[in-house]
């Protein structure tokens, strides 16, 4: 079954430390992968997608097809990065499947 | 660009009642999806509409139904409400050939 797994429900790091949010997917073929973010009292918004190979707000995500992973990384965390992060996968013009989400807290 | 707008923002209904939630998408966004997000969970796909026809459905019973209109608005209808239907309902839309959805702020439904 198509599945996106985020193994950490909660992640807490100190400001300035590196951060990595893990995401694994279970799909046959090559899904399109996304990271969405939800800041406090704001709507869910697209952070980045793997086909763009871009860096948004200092975050990058590398697709590893061998490990079926799409981990989100940032070298130096900032307090404004505190939010809920969701990994999501999309394949074949069908539904966008979300992971359970990771709540990231950046401590001062 | 006006984004995706959902109404109402909050709603309280009694078990057994029916509810209609509304969504207004951006012009050109001919695909709209609805999601249910329970507390502490990721969004769960309910169904998707493309050019006013349902073209994908998640694991939700038939009492969850929808409509999409030519003016890029859509509705989610839920009949015979159950307590477990209490959740945040999200509408998301996208233009053709772009799979990055734009989400609305959601409607918080409470069934008592």
What does this structure look like?
The complex is a heterodimer of chains A (108) and B (112). Chain A is mainly beta and 108 residues long. Helix content of chain A is 0%, strand content 50%. Chain A has no helices and 11 strands. In chain A, strands 2, 5, 6, 9, 10 and 11 form a 6-stranded mixed β-sheet that branches. Chain A is globular. Chain B has 112 residues and is an all-beta fold. Chain B has strands at residues 5-7, 10-13, 19-24, 31-37, 44-50, 53-57, 64-68, 73-78, 87-94, 102-103, 107-111. In chain B, the strands form 2 sheets. In chain B, strands 2, 4, 5, 6, 9, 10 and 11 form a 7-stranded mixed β-sheet that branches. A 4-stranded antiparallel β-sheet of chain B has the order 1-3-8-7, with no helix packed on it. In chain B, strand 4 (31-37) and strand 5 form a beta hairpin. Chain B is globular and about 40 Å long. The A-B interface holds A 4, 6, 32, 34, 36, 43-46, 49, 86, 90, 93-101 and B 33, 35, 41-45, 48, 55-56, 58, 90, 92, 99-106.
How do the helices and strands line up, and which of them pair or pack?
The complex is a heterodimer of chains A (108) and B (112).
Chain A: E1 3-5, E2 10-14, E3 19-21, E4 24-26, E5 32-38, E6 45-49, E7 60-64, E8 69-74, E9 83-90, E10 96-98, E11 102-107
Chain B: E1 5-7, E2 10-13, E3 19-24, E4 31-37, E5 44-50, E6 53-57, E7 64-68, E8 73-78, E9 87-94, E10 102-103, E11 107-111
Helix content range of chain B: under 10%
Largest sheet of chain B, described in full? 7 strands, mixed
Share of β-strand residues of chain A: over 45%
Report the end-to-end length of chain B measured between terminal Cα atoms.
37 Å
Reading the helices and strands of chain A in chain order gives EEEEEEEEEEE
Q: Radius of gyration of chain A in whole Å, from Cα?
A: 13 Å
Return the average pLDDT of chain A rounded to an integer.
Answer: 91
Assembly state (oligomeric): heterodimer
SS-based class of chain B: mainly beta
Number of strands of chain B: 11
- Pair with the biggest interface: A-B, 21 and 21 residues
């Amino acid at each position: 079954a198509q599945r996106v797994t985020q193994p950490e429900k909660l992640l807490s790091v100190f400001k300035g430390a590196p951060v990595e949010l893990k995401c694994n997917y279970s799909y046959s073929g090559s899904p399109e992968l996304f990271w969405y973010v939800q800041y406090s009292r704001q709507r869910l918004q697209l952070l980045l997608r793997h086909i763009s190979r871009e860096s948004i707000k200092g975050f990058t995500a590398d697709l590893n097809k061998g490990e079926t992973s799409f981990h989100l990384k940032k070298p130096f965390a900032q307090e404004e990065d505190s939010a809920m992060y969701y990994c999501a996968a999309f394949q074949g013009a069908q539904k966008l499947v979300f992971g359970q989400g990771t709540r990231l807290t950046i401590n001062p | 660009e006006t984004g995706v707008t959902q109404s109402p923002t909050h709603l309280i209904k009694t078990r057994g009642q029916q509810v209609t939630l509304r969504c207004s998408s951006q012009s050109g966004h001919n695909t709209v999806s609805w999601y249910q997000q329970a507390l502490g969970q990721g969004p769960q796909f309910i169904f998707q509409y493309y050019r006013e026809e349902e073209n994908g459905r998640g694991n939700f019973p038939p009492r969850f139904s929808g409509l999409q209109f030519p003016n890029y608005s859509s509705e989610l209808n839920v009949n015979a409400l159950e307590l477990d239907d209490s959740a945040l309902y999200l509408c998301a839309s996208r233009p053709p050939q772009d799979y990055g959805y734009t989400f609305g702020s959601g409607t918080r439904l409470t069934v008592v």
